[in-house]
Each structure stands twice: as C-alpha cells, then as structure tokens.
Amino acid sequence: MKIVVLDGYALNPGDLSWQGFEAFGEVTVYDRTSFTDKEEIIERIGEAEAILTNKTPIDEEVLAAVPQLKYIGVIATGYNVVDLEAARKRKIPVTNIPAYGTDAVAQFTFALLLEIANQVGVHNDSVQQGEWQRSIDFTYQKTPLMELQGKTIGLVGYGEIAQATAMIAHAFNMKVIYWNHRPKAPQAEWAQQVSIDELYQQSDIISLHVPQTAETQAMINQESIAKMKDGVILLNTARGGLIDEAAVADALNAGKIFAAGVDVISKEPMAENNPLLNAKNCIITPHIAWRPLETRERLMGIAVDNFAAFLDGKEKNVVNKEHDE
User: Fold this and answer.
1) Fewer beta carbons within 10 Å, N or C terminal of the chain?
2) What is the pLDDT along the chain (325 residues), one digit of tens a residue?
3) In 10 A of CB 34, how many CB atoms?
C-alpha cells in the first residue's frame, strides 16, 4: 500500500521514526505541503491509498481527484482540515488522535501561569545583564510577583485537559470552578460547576479548554471581558479563535486584563500585525504545548494504531463514523 504523509515536520522534525507506517507499505514523507495549492496537494497524494495530514486541507475538490484514496489519518486532535461529508460519501474513514497531549498541555498551561506569577524569565535576564551584581541589596524585583494559593481559577470547558489542569491547580491550593457546555459532574468535591457568567465574575485566572466551534468562536470578546474581574489573568492553550485578539489586546493595554498567556493564535503562523504582539503583559508561545518528545511519541503510536485497526477491518478513532449510512 502506498502511504503519503503530506506535512510531517511538525510531528517529526527528525527525532522520531516513520517505521511504524513503513511496516504497512511504501511511505513517502513531505515535511510541508502548501495549504492553498490544490494542484500540489493532489500531485503529492498521487496514487496513494492512504494519507496522513496535520494541517494540509483535504476538501471535495482534492478527494474527487484521487478516487483510489481509502484512508485519511489526521495526525492531530482537530480534524476540521478534512471535509468529513465528502469523505463519508466516498466511504473513506477519517481518524484523529484524541487525548494524546492531556498532561503536556495541562503542564504548559501552568508554565504560562507560573511565568506570569513569578516572571522567572525577566529576572533571569536581569541577572544575566549584571543587575544583581551591581545591586546594593541582596534582593530586588523587576515586576509584581504573586502567590497562586487562594486564587480562583475558572476553567472554560471540563474535558480531560481541563480536569488535568484542575488537579494541578488544586495542588497549588487554588479554588477551582468550571463551566461546561452541558452539565458535567466534578471530579472531586473541590471543583465546582458554575454558569459562564459566574465564571467570568468570580475568576482571578481564566483558562480556556474548549474546541473552536461556531458557538465558541471569539467567546472572549469585549462583552465577556467586561464581566470579568479587574486584573484577571487569561490563559489560552486551546484554539486561537476562541478570543477576539483586538479586544484582549485593548483590555491588556487598559489594565482590565492584568496579563495573558497564549500558545495559540487565530492565524498561524502569526501575522506581523497581530494586536497581541504589542499588548502589555502578554506572553506568546508558538503553539508548542503539544510538542514534548514524549507527547509526540505517543501521538505517533496512536496514529499507527489507528491505521493498523483500519487495515484489520476495525474502526478506531474514526471521526466521520456517526455519519455512515
């Protein structure tokens, strides 16, 4: 079987192996494929019966040009890059990789929060530049510092990543509240479900953990920010489109939001004119919460298992299964 990886670099920049897929057939790996040049996408798929994609879009036009295609594996959790209906009509299963990065993303959420609370990077830079050596005091600080103990963290969404984040917050003796689009039992007595407005009003820190849908698009906007506490901290390790970036930048510059830590942006790679770039107290990282080696190894393993299950006539992590006729 011919297998084509359309954009493998993000998952495997050279420190992993495609050997798991090579056991099933001839594998061709492209580090990157154009997101917009459909001719290139179609040409690279060629005669492949199975493809793997991360962000390269697979739509009706592409599928119509490759009638021999039998399998689409999305090597990520989000699968909006594939036209599921077009694949369903052609009886092509589309699989994704759920829950591979739960601990890594929860850990990174707190890495952003701890950087905001303790400003380790700022103070390390200060020492490296000689300020401590020139200081007349044994201690000094460049920015406000804060304890997390006793603060209220509000989790928007309460899936696996949010629950892992809640466990970390509890270990820091924080108060944990959460909102979910449907009622969801708390994992412990120390977590409390509230309405979204109550979450905005009560939280010292708000952390986003919901998928990007029509309902959640730009849910953090001028109106919702107005409901928040003055000096709130905003964290986003979910999807960039959950926030209205201009509204958040304005709130940061006005001090309504004390600080933000974001690992995702509405358009990636980041545009040079993104308003968050020049906003006050905004930490931005390039979508790396999922990138630890151990996490990517797990992702690769699940991707191989998904494909092996398909070849064995069994469905595993098929996201268009519910539409089958």
Assistant:
1) C
2) 999 999 999 999 999 999 999 999 999 999 999 999 999 999 999 999 999 999 999 999 999 999 999 999 999 998 989 999 999 999 999 999 998 999 999 999 999 999 999 999 999 999 999 999 999 999 999 999 999 999 999 999 999 999 999 999 999 999 999 999 998 888 899 999 999 999 999 999 999 999 888 999 999 999 999 999 999 999 999 999 999 999 999 999 999 999 999 999 999 999 999 999 999 999 999 999 999 999 999 999 999 999 999 999 998 999 998 644 4
3) 14
Catalytic-labelled residue, pool 44, 209, 239, 296: 239
Known active-site residue 298: no
pTM: 0.92
Q: How far is CA 76 from the centre of its chain?
A: 10
**Multiple choice CATH, 102-284, 3.30.300.20, 3.40.50.1000, 3.40.50.720, 3.40.50.300:** 3.40.50.720
Look up residue 243 and give its DSSP letter: B
| Active-site residue, selected from the candidate residues 26, 268, 294, 315 | 268
Q: How far is CA 189 from CA 156, 173, 237, in A?
A: 18, 14, 25
